[in-house]
């Protein structure tokens, strides 16, 4: 980065702030963004075109779209609150994939699905554990939670302890 493009704070500190997302984190955010777009497009089309065929499944498609949108934002946004939002959202996503995946496989009628076809007209993003999306919806939250566990924004502050003069830790 050129010295002409540095912010006033960076000039004063003499160093650039550390980026929250780099490397694998960028790939993770990209995949979440793609799934957010795909799930949103699918759910909007399903709801507009044939909501009456499988209202539960199509509502779940819209829910998965919302989860992917919030997860994408939470992964990118800085701060401890967004970090917690990411944990909650991605944990909910994993639970959703597991529950909806199992229901779609063993009791598709409970979701209003006519069959187990993950590529079918009434399938959701999470049907058959995300098989219609190459199981990415199943693997992504596991990778997301692992990545979050390694990139805690307050990790240094919570693990660093200072010693007081009497030897006690504060």
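Q: What amino acid sequence fits the structure above?
A:
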């Amino acid at each position: 980065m050129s010295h002409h493009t540095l912010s006033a704070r960076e000039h004063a500190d003499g160093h650039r702030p550390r980026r929250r997302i780099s490397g694998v984190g960028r790939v993770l955010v990209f995949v979440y963004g793609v799934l957010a777009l795909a799930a949103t497009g699918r759910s909007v089309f399903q709801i507009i075109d044939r909501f009456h065929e499988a209202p539960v499944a199509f509502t779940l498609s819209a829910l998965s779209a919302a989860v992917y949108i919030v997860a994408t934002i939470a992964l990118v946004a800085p701060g401890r609150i967004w970090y917690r939002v990411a944990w909650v959202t991605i944990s909910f996503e994993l639970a959703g994939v597991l529950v909806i995946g199992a229901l779609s496989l063993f009791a598709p009628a409970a979701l209003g699905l006519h069959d187990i076809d993950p590529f079918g007209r009434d399938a959701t993003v999470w049907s058959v554990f995300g098989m219609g999306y190459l199981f990415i919806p199943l693997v992504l939250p596991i990778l997301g939670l692992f990545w979050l566990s390694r990139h805690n924004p307050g990790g240094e502050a919570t693990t660093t302890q200072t010693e007081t003069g009497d030897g006690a830790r504060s």
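Q: And what stands out in the fold?
A: Helices lie at 8-13, 24-50, 55-76, 80-106, 136-150, 155-159.
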